[in-house]
Queue: 2 jobs
Job 1
Amino acid sequence: MRLEIRLAGFGGQGIIRAGLMLAMASCIYEGKNAVQTQSYGPESRGGACKSEVVISDEDIDYPKVVEPDILVVLSQEAYNAYVETVKKGGLLLLDPGMVPLRESKNVGVRVFMIPAAKIAEQLGKTIVANVVMLGALVSITKIIGIEAFRKSLLSNIPKGTEKLNLAALRKGYEYGKKLLEEADTSLNIA
Amino acid sequence: METKNKAMLSGQHFMNGDVACAEGAIAVGCRFFAGYPITPATEIAERMARRLPQVSGVYIQMEDELASIAAVLGASNAGTKAMTATSGPGFSLMMENIGLAVMTETPCVIVDIMRGGPSTGQPTMPGQQDVMQARWGSHGDYEIIALTPSSVQEMFDLTIEAFNLSETYRVPTFLLADEIIGHMWERVNIPSAKSIKVVNRKKPVTPPSEYGPFKPDEDLVPPMACFGEGYRFHATGLTHDEYGRPKTDSAEVQQDLVQRLCEKIRRNSDKIVKVDRVLLEDAEVAVVAYGIASRAALSAVRKARAQGIKAGLLRLVTVWPFPDKQVEEVAQKVKALVVPEMNYGQIVREVRRVAKETPVIFLSKLGEEPHKPLEILDALGEFRK
């Protein structure tokens, strides 16, 4: 089965690294096929930025995302651009602090709001907001085992930041888990 | 000292295409890189800067692309396998000395990670707009070899192949990838050192007194001594005889030289050309594609088959010399050919030349997104029974 994930925000949020960590966890640490592609502007920070991951048990021909099963947005601009692209029955994960205006008519999508930047700030560094988000993604979607993701995370971060990143992963994972438990009943209504 | 394990990262990796290209170069014995960073090829230079010193190689960041390719030619003439990597604007700047590489028959590998052009265009966006420039960008008549990887694994494998071809035919060889393939991360299996085929340039067997650096063997390729090895080696961009002596007023020498520079590739094109044939046996319509467009094409062909459309894919691994025979063979069997390219119509010209009466449908794509499989499927859908 082919699974498509799109992560979008702006340059500097670690969007590309986030996609890479997911793909690597799946490919190297879980033995599936995975590919990550990216799109960004010439600016080093602030421009629109998109990272796409395709995971499959089979050989992956087309490496880009066509209709995401999972969309993660970390900016209002990214929300506006991609919210309507999510597959029916798909998932949308967003940071409500970064996406204040949420007026999508894409009703077939389950929405999870993770205040990733705020949680990261409480940990001392907003730079790990991407890892908080991925922690939540792992616990909500279960597309990757937490152990595989932890290994991928550790092989993608600079030495000396392990403690901070693992804390961000744990916080995000727990937040997602809690959200999922709370959401269980309301999901049926939607 | 160089150790085998440092040159060869045997095992499974998750890499991007640019890095895999650098690793392929190191695996096949490239020990010199001169370049000027440019998006989306910068990661190749970065990787080479880190890796070459580990294997006793030399990395130089030059002042520009003109100097980069010049340094590569110098290193190659001194006997070292050498490479540079760039993108459209830098590729344009290299054209003059690429002609010198052709004329002096200096083996070298030039990687072009294609972005959107013309000019500085769209630096971070993909394109396949330099395929004709690779073929014709320098002046005069000549032939070169160009390979078009479509996966990260092929960025590794075809970089090795590019060096081997360049050394075999004493000709500049191009690796033409697009931004997506260059920046894409995928699994790469790096084999053991002994399972990699490494070709080194033919050395002279004649004594120095009889050696001519441009005196060809039967296969039209002259053996190549290195500068400083004891052989007289005069190299010039001027038309020259077999000893490298300028002959600027002899029609005969000009005729013989230009003909040989072209024919050493044309006559060997069967050995050089590689294509990948997918589901072509009973195909009634075929896609001809390379690089990123071939990934969408493969998906489209599989979808078409699921709908009962007899579609196939001819993926070009070599674009230069153009696979005339292979394309013609497919063209004769099918009702139509579909050619998707991330440009405004380049390789499709070659396909039309070879396809003759068979209709050729061209699908152009420019900008950020590659062709979607459904766009190619739409073109194939017309051949539903």
Job 2
Amino acid sequence: MATATATPRRAIECGVPDNTSFLHPVLKRNYGNWKYHDRPRPGVLHHVSHSGEEVWSVRAGTQRQMDVHTIRTLCDIADTYAEGHVRFTIRSNIEFMVGEESKVAPLVEALTKAGFPVGGTGNSVSMIAHTQGWLHCDIPGTDASGAVKALMDELYHEFIREDMPNRVHLSTSCCEINCGGQADIAIIIQHTKPPKINHDLVANVCERPAVVARCPVAAIRPALVNGKPSLEVDEKKCICCGACYPPCPPMQINDPENSKFAIWVGGKNSNARGKPTFMKMVASGIPNHPPRWPEVSEIVKKILYTYKEDARPWERLSDWVERIGWPRFFEKTGLPFTKYLIDDWRGSRASLNASAHIRF
Amino acid sequence: MDKKMHPTPMLDELESGPWPSFVTGLKRLAGENPMVVDLLGQLETSYRTRKGYWKGGTVSVFGYGGGIIPRFTELKDADGKPQFPDAAEFHTLRVMPPAGMHYSTDILRKLCDSWERHGSGLIAFHGQSGDIMFQGVRSENVQAAFDEINELGFDLGGAGPAVRTSMSCVGASRCEQSCYDEGKTHRTVINSFLDDIHRPSLPYKFKFKFSGCPNDCMNSIQRSDMAVIGTWRDNIRTDEALARKYFAAHGLNDLVNDVVNRCPTKAIRLVKATEAKAGPSVSMVKLSDEHALEIENRDCVRCMHCINVITGGLAPGADKGATILVGGKRTLKIGDLMGTVVVPFMKLATDEDREKLVDLAKRIVDFFAENALEHERIGETIERIGLVNFLEGVELEIDANMVATPRTNPYVRTDGWDEEVARINAKKSQAA
């Protein structure tokens, strides 16, 4: 290893590593030749190749933000009970591949004993796609890992079972940029007050024209405040989106009292059945209440279990609402339909009911 | 190493319950690393005050301009001294994952050992763009931490106005729905943009994502500027043994309610087994001696639903490739945008095919670099200038697959109509 010298080490610009050496041997041998799969039990996928070879993958939930000891524990389990190869899913679940069915039960047992829930396959509620929050983000309105831990504690049984009408994807995001992404149910901070500006700092910290350009509603303009060049916000125009905050931290948008949670439903990326859909806001004004955010969990569970009870097989949350209609969604979930849920952004007329289609 | 722990009554509440606790993990690290003791102190403060306390800055490794997310604490006492000095610098290294996020335990252990030496010991598998996030390192250790990870065969990902880290699904390595070699394509495309990843100089971020079929497990349509989604042109393939197995287990009601009725374009029909037959564009499979399915593939939009339900009994065709969509992103600034089709189908079977994809990607990124406004994503550029201008700029032919419907308003100048028809006809006769 090179020691510190006048010339630092030049990076090897190797880019994306070749995954060949990391692939389980059965995966490598049957690359591109898989025939079908089934699920012998929740958390276990069984894939069969055209060659006749089989592989069992055991999926377990993780906390995503992992200490090296947790990762080593997972590696120990992979070396003792599986065959030394793992992969991660997009939702931070870990998968262990084994070439023999007899290895599945001991592997499941070892994972369960070590505190890793086995599940997240098929019609389960999978792990929540989430962001960094107070742990590492520079603009967070809330925490991510904590909110996810709290909610997954409550949805644990839905992770280890496959009892939902179809798969359920959740996401959380700590600001309206929504790094958690579209989901069947998404939990996102919604700011309700314009930014509070520290005029002493704006001139030194912010590139003012760039901040002005960033505002979606042209509510920001340059101004001289107390003799210093700064920015001012037309608070009547401001939609409290927080877009000005990342390029200009003195325009503080996060507000411990007034930044609330909103809940969105019906996002779907898959093309299965209908085209992919964006999620829709169905609730807001929910307090930011660490460490366990009980008010958020309550509404998420209400939506989730109404869907579970009422949807037909293979209906994702969006498919279910498409069948029953929005009025019944609000009626069944008991959520209030308020004027704030009627879109008024550009293109919003496309979200209105341009028909006489009414369900009674 | 026995730095005293700060009281963390709120975080402590996240140690109970059945889901794995990141707090328990952090506390374990805190026993060995004072940085994590102070990290817990700052995080507990955030839980109490409901405020974040990190600010960005400029930290980099030699030769690169991006890939490190710098974090400096803003939680300071009256004299401007950090309240939690051991976590005053807590930077993240974004590191690109292998395609499909496959690892051997050997490489994971080496990455852990290295990060324990240089950083906090906290790693996220993975960030929302796919990076392995090595979280928590002081400025002075960034270079050494990167050097070791780099020697292990890994490289930094994107940050800022750059091409970003990418993700591909498990795909060909373990999925029967795979329509191209997602891993190889992912690696070929991304490794053609390393300069744009490591040295941010675009108007804003640009993301690629690679999904092997229209189930789009990588969420590429709404999470990437350029989505490569596997599909096929020929007929859905069938396997009678597996189709019969499905039917025997589920029966006629499930077949009708879950498969036939859920076809979005009514391309599937239930027919008598004795009268069923396949045709040039019709897939047919017998489910029993009585019942069979016929699928009119010209009406099928490749949504994947029936294949998902009767996996193996129905399967993607053999003439596979991908649909390319451009412009997906979340709200800021103009509102949410899905990616939209710019190439209905391209083959991705050979290195030559993949080079064509790289070439297209380069034309699109170049167009983006030259024409997008600052902090504008490519979807917003297209919204601003119109799809046709974009297509002409990147030298792609228009196709009726690119629209949901033709224009619904008359606000257009059509004085070039005759020339355009003549051009299309000339092209058609040339191709014939």
